[in-house]
């Protein structure tokens, strides 16, 4: 186990990661992540106005470098759909791709600084209901966004998560158009793929072959079989990675940042924007992945910023895009049964190998069979049982959960989570205000005595609730304000208490203060790890 701010048990625990028990789960999961990541890397690069190779390169670095350095066991890093608009505007605004690469490199440096100063602690303050809502929203988005790909209408880029699309349609209108442009070859492939994903793992003797790998093989065979018929797939309905003809051509795809633009103010603004947005998306993603981790491990968030920063620096130096921990790929990783970071690292190797050795075979994979894998991932994230579970937690959890879902689906990840956070904080504050004290009615002879026992922590947020309670106490009563359990009482609350005692005689109220100090100093939490050394 790891703490949020601590490190992992080791940089790379070979005994743990390379054990047969873990490898038999991690390697099949890595194939699934590779298949999911491949079209997403290409689609995001295309939407960002960057070379297709840049998307693949970012996925490779996200797997090999960030995957190795990360303290997260299940998150997968790569180019993120949430950064496409920023990247597209930055490439156009900075005037050249090599100048943009400098901004990516500097964004990585900023992320490393954020990790060093422990800015990752912000990840501890995302309400659980909001994270659950984000996961469910991603599941719903996957189902809606992958439906057009599953039926053969592929006008939008693979990996888009926004409600309003670049082709001037939105998620709903795109689905309606897809119904009118169905390719029955793609429908058959996606239907057979879903059936294989559902039923193949149930046959224990056959389950040794991963269902997603079988889906891809079946998709390739069917895609070839449909050639020359009315159900033939179009070029845009297949994966399309660059075909490298020689070693020199491969190394010619790499690009270097333009360090001469280091004094360009716009470069620094872009770098800061990329660093902040990428860090927030990463922290949200790792928090969400920890939620669905069957083993319930906890990611050290500061180490994650260091890993992401290193990955972005290398990506900028070699010609790639900015990266984050990506919830879609990470969710697919968890649902595929991964146990350790070996899955994320291996998916990076598979991306590299596919680019160098079998690009022609990879380009035979229909997008409709990959859409089936993502549809199943979406279904598991947005399952009905999750909604029932959140409902049983009460409205204070269910409402932020639903608001987050609606906001993420109709805007984008960060804006939606921001709206969900605002609603979640409202309920948090309301609960905090209502738990500032506990009352007890005691007897003093024939007279009733009201004892108000103040909570352990009485903050400024409790001021209004306490003031209203004291103002509404009945006349000619005896009140005891008991601070025995209080470790801290805010100065504003102390002022209200003393003012009430001073003026209570006008209402005939007798006030007694028990164990309430004139002043409380803020208590600092001790670092237990240091105490144990």
TrEMBL record:
<feature type="transmembrane region" description="Helical">
    <location>
        <begin position="27"/>
        <end position="46"/>
    </location>
</feature>
<protein>
    <submittedName>
        <fullName>SulP family sulfate permease</fullName>
    </submittedName>
</protein>
<feature type="transmembrane region" description="Helical">
    <location>
        <begin position="267"/>
        <end position="286"/>
    </location>
</feature>
<dbReference type="GO" id="GO:0016020">
    <property type="term" value="C:membrane"/>
</dbReference>
<feature type="transmembrane region" description="Helical">
    <location>
        <begin position="100"/>
        <end position="117"/>
    </location>
</feature>
<feature type="transmembrane region" description="Helical">
    <location>
        <begin position="398"/>
        <end position="429"/>
    </location>
</feature>
<feature type="transmembrane region" description="Helical">
    <location>
        <begin position="76"/>
        <end position="94"/>
    </location>
</feature>
<keyword id="KW-0472">Membrane</keyword>
<dbReference type="Pfam" id="PF00916">
    <property type="entry name" value="Sulfate_transp"/>
</dbReference>
<feature type="transmembrane region" description="Helical">
    <location>
        <begin position="349"/>
        <end position="378"/>
    </location>
</feature>
<dbReference type="InterPro" id="IPR001902">
    <property type="entry name" value="SLC26A/SulP_fam"/>
</dbReference>
<feature type="transmembrane region" description="Helical">
    <location>
        <begin position="207"/>
        <end position="226"/>
    </location>
</feature>
<keyword id="KW-0812">Transmembrane</keyword>
<feature type="transmembrane region" description="Helical">
    <location>
        <begin position="182"/>
        <end position="200"/>
    </location>
</feature>
<dbReference type="InterPro" id="IPR002645">
    <property type="entry name" value="STAS_dom"/>
</dbReference>
<keyword id="KW-1133">Transmembrane helix</keyword>
<feature type="transmembrane region" description="Helical">
    <location>
        <begin position="306"/>
        <end position="328"/>
    </location>
</feature>
<feature type="domain" description="STAS">
    <location>
        <begin position="439"/>
        <end position="533"/>
    </location>
</feature>
<dbReference type="InterPro" id="IPR011547">
    <property type="entry name" value="SLC26A/SulP_dom"/>
</dbReference>
<feature type="transmembrane region" description="Helical">
    <location>
        <begin position="124"/>
        <end position="144"/>
    </location>
</feature>
<dbReference type="GO" id="GO:0055085">
    <property type="term" value="P:transmembrane transport"/>
</dbReference>
């Amino acid at each position: 186990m790891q703490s949020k701010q601590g490190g992992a048990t080791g940089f790379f625990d070979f005994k743990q990661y390379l054990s047969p028990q873990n490898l038999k789960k991690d390697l099949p999961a890595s194939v699934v992540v590779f298949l999911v990541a491949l079209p997403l890397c290409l689609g995001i690069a295309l939407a960002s106005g960057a070379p297709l190779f840049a998307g693949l390169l970012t996925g490779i670095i996200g797997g090999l470098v960030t995957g190795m350095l990360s303290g997260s066991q299940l998150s997968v890093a790569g180019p993120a759909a949430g950064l496409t608009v920023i990247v597209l505007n930055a490439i156009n605004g900075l005037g050249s791709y090599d100048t943009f690469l400098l901004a990516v490199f500097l964004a990585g440096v900023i992320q490393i600084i954020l990790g060093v100063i422990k800015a990752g602690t912000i990840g501890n303050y995302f309400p659980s209901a909001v994270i659950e809502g984000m996961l469910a929203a991603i599941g719903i988005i996957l189902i809606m966004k992958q439906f057009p790909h599953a039926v053969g209408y592929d006008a939008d880029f693979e990996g888009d998560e926004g409600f309003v699309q670049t082709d001037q349609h939105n998620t709903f209108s795109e689905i309606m158009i897809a119904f009118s442009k169905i390719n029955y070859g793609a429908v058959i492939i996606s239907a057979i793929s879903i059936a294989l994903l559902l039923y193949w793992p149930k046959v224990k003797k056959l389950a040794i072959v991963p269902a997603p790998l079988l889906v891809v093989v079946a998709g390739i065979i069917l895609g070839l079989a449909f050639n020359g018929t009315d159900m033939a797939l179009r070029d845009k309905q297949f994966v399309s990675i660059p075909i490298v003809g020689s070693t020199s051509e491969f190394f010619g795809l790499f690009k270097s940042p333009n360090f001469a633009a280091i004094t360009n103010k716009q470069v620094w603004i872009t770098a800061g924007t990329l660093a902040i947005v990428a860090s927030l998306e990463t922290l949200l993603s790792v928090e969400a992945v920890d939620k669905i981790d069957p083993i319930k491990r906890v990611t050290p968030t500061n180490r994650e910023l260091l890993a992401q920063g290193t990955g972005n620096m290398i990506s900028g130096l070699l010609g790639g895009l900015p990266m984050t921990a990506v919830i879609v790929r990470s969710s697919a990783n968890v649902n595929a049964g991964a146990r350790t970071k070996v899955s994320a690292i291996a998916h990076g190797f598979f991306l590299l190998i596919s680019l160098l050795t079998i690009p022609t075979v990879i380009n035979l994979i229909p997008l409709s069979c990959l859409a089936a894998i993502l549809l199943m991932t979406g279904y598991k994230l947005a399952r009905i049982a999750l909604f029932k579970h959140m409902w049983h937690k009460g409205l204070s959890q269910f409402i932020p959960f639903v608001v987050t879902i609606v906001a993420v689906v109709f805007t984008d990840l960060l804006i939606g989570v921001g709206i969900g956070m605002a609603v979640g904080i409202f309920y948090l504050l309301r609960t905090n205000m209502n738990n500032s004290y506990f009352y007890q009615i005691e007897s003093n002879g024939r007279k009733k005595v009201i004892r108000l026992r103040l909570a352990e922590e009485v903050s400024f947020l409790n001021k209004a609730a306490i003031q209203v309670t004291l103002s509404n106490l009945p006349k000619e009563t005896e009140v005891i304000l008991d601070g025995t359990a209080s470790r801290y009482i805010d100065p504003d609350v102390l002022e209200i208490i003393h003012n009430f005692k001073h003026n209570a005689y006008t209402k005939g109220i007798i006030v007694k203060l028990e164990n309430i100090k004139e002043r409380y100093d803020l208590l600092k939490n001790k670092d237990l790890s240091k105490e144990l050394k």
